Amino acid sequence: EKKGVVRETGTVSELTIENLSTEEVFVQAGEIVKGGRQDRVLGTDMVLPPKAGKGPGASHCVEQGRWQKRGEEAADHFASSQSIAATKDIKIANYRGNQSEVWANVAKVQQKLNAKVGADVRSNQSASSLQLSLEHDRVRLSVEAYVKALSDVVKSSPDSVGYAFAINGEINSAEVYASPDLFLAEWPKLLRASAAEAVSEREAGVGHTPPTLDQVKSFLAAADAGAATQKTAGPAARVVSRETASRLVVETQAAGGGWLHRSYLRK
Fold this sequence. Notes:
Blueprint: E1 4-11, E2 14-19, E3 25-27, E4 31-35, E5 40-42, E6 46-48, E7 55-61, E8 78-84, H1 88-96, H2 99-117, H3 130-134, H4 137-150, E9 162-167, E10 170-177, H5 180-201, H6 213-220, E11 228-232, E12 237-243, E13 247-254, E14 259-266
Antiparallel strand pairs: 1-2, 2-7, 3-6, 4-5, 4-8, 5-7, 9-10, 10-14, 11-12, 12-13, 13-14
């Protein structure tokens, strides 16, 4: 919608983000921006005030090796953000700020997708690009099967504010938002990311028992467990993370009070 622009800085761990619109813009951690000198994943949720000018945005590389223009793409800014990073392991590494873990988990999910879809999903344009792997025809077709089956689930519950999902019968993660509008705006990308992870992890021909409602409630409970770490997330928000031996919970709070987004990740 051209409401904002993400620009290259020449530094892997930081981009600039500018809101060009007259509205506040919410940017979610894990968004993959495609292009620049290499594809990146945004490191934290951010709330961008209207027309506030350029500001820094934490990022991690999800395309190891390239540091130049790719094809017809611009090298100084990013043309699109169509995906959120697939797999909880990439998300955890991204939240932790660990670039080497991000690279390792990108390579891991590429290997898993190769095995599951029966083709090398690495692109000839850039073999290490997570985004280009997610765009591979066989991955895209596998993901579409999940999207077709599940995209309309939210229509029966228009007041829903989040979702939890399981793969092979085990709860994987959950995303919860402060309002139905915010959740529904993120839902298409969230579903595709979850589906891509399901494709990479699925166990064909093996029966699984879905988790019960009580198990999901238990997973979401005790969100305050673990020591808290806090960091700013742009000019209008902060992020509070709590990590235990079994999970990571990340909460984005508006600077003026109240929370906007909670991400629950099983380790």
